[in-house]
Amino acid sequence: MQTLLGIDLGTTGVKAALFAEDGRVLADAFFDYPLYHPHPGWAEQNPDDWWQATIDAIRLCLSKGAEQGASPSDVRGIGLSGQMHGVVLLDEQHQVLRPCIIWADQRSEKQSQWMTERVGARQLIEHVSNPALTGFTAPKLLWVRDNEPDIFARAHTLLLPKDYIRYRLTGEMAMEISDAAGTCLLDVKHGIWSQDVLKAIELDPSLLPPVVPADAITGHITDEVASLTGLIAGTPVAGGGADNACGAVGNGVVSPGLALVSIGTSGVVLAYADSPQVDTSGPVPRVHTFNHAVPNAWYLMGVTQGAGLSMRWVRDNIGLPEHALERWTGVDAYETLAQEAKSVPAGSEGLIFLPYLQGERTPHLDAYARGGWIGLSARHDRRHLIRSVMEGVAFSLRDCFAIIREQGLTIEQMRATGGGAKSPLWRQIIADVLGVELVTTNATEGPAFGAALLAGVAGGVYSSVQEACKQTVRIVERTAPQTSTKAAYDSAYETYQALYPALKPIISKPL
Fold first, then answer.
1. Considering the domain boundaries, does residue 291 fall inside one?
2. Greatest Cα pair distance in the chain
3. Which is the catalytic residue, given 179, 187, 243, 399?
């Protein structure tokens, strides 16, 4: 039996999943770790927490795999996926210098503005295809330089979260291309570090490790790691990919005409592109252009910050009885709430929700935006609140979808993933609002599956990423858009679009 191991380093925890070469899940394991908020708007994690959780997840996954007849010696490759944009700084002895400033951290607004002014807004887009945002790596790194000069002076190497795990597994320093694309330091068009940007912001290029492909071997499991995890020393570790790139691979979004909608804590609309197309309609791109984990391919991506987060807020604040009962009955609170919302007509009878619970990325690039309900009347009840949240997230995803289409990309099919995609009602709402077919696949393990497929290509199990997906990814369910709701959603979306510019002076203020 040939098997592949995928490791996904998420924001809440790490997942290790073992797959057969036909894509079947043989075993998985998940271990969580803390997220720290030292100050409002800050978000940090301890890389040592990641590493210990990774060891535990691998050991448990291999133990479960053994019950299915899978041996560690069967593992042909290991793929890594992970949260993007985090700053992991190592000293000359390869020791971590400070907690990782992760993607959700918003402290670097001043550095984002300085970087934009220093390089030039248009020049920055020309060099790295993306604006300098607080969520990206470079402004966070500049914050460390400005505010923790002693730590910055000792910094020898910058790594991203999953690439730190690669170092711990193999001893090799590298940064994989689809993840490097989110640093705001990579020339996305050519896949190399932008010397022009590095020079402009006075960063030493030696701080950056080599950029490596997603589907190539980048190191091998060390003897020490073998003793800690149960893996076989010498097992190859592939480049892997950023979480969204691996999610796209795991759902087969590896050719033109295909796109991915992901409904996790944040929401993503991601479309495959065979050239590095950039949104140049305004002063800054409204969607990101990143290198894909597929060789010589890219993807355009719009992000809504508060997708699943908005529904979690509903569950935790107005769905408390259902949430409490879930612990006793095992009935999913989200599904119970969705069943209530199902009785409300499309458009929520005029109630509109803005899902800006932690700012918004696409299309507003506004870290200070805040959400709320508009149009609340005496006839509305809890059911309307729930459904309007699901619709508000769908409208935000439509913002992303429309901008991507403006770039000339044809999207024939959307593949849905993430926790929110498990809801039949939410899938139907999104299909109706976007006006495109949504399908779900057998990729239940998310980015870990895509990472494992990339390891399979690196290890010679598959001839290419496309061939890996052809052999393993299968459509499970289809959700076609309903014409009966089109008028209601188009009208509600028109109102939704008008609200942010009208309310910006009120809802967009620094904390």
1. no
2. 67
3. 243
- Residue 115 identity (one-letter amino acid): M
Q: Is-contact 236 458, C-beta < 8 A? A: yes
Has residue 115 got a pLDDT over 90? yes
CA dihedral (291, 294, 298, 299) positive or negative: negative
What does the pLDDT look like over 371-389, one tens digit per residue? 999 999 999 999 999 999 9
83 & 209 share domain = yes
Residues 6+ apart with CB under 8 A from 265: 11, 307, 308, 309, 312
Q: Which residues lie below 8 Å from residue 311, measured CB to CB, with a gap of 6+?
A: 334, 337, 389, 390, 393, 420
pLDDT band for 69, please (50, 70, 90 cuts).
Answer: very high
- Alpha-carbon distance 137 to 101, whole Å? 9
Residue 18 has pLDDT above 80, yes or no: yes
Contact 302, 346 (CB under 8 A): no
215 catalytically annotated: no
pLDDT digits (tens, 9 = 90+) for 28-60: 999 999 999 999 889 999 999 999 999 999 999
Cis peptide before 363, with omega less than 30 degrees from 0?
A: yes
Cα 126 to Cα 116, 208, 392, 499, distances in angstroms = 12, 21, 33, 32
Q: Are residues 455 and 501 in the same domain?
A: no
Exposure string for 394-426, b = 16+ CB within 10 A, e = fewer: bbbbbbbbbbbbebebebeebbbbbbbbbbebb
Number of domains observed in the structure of the chain: 2
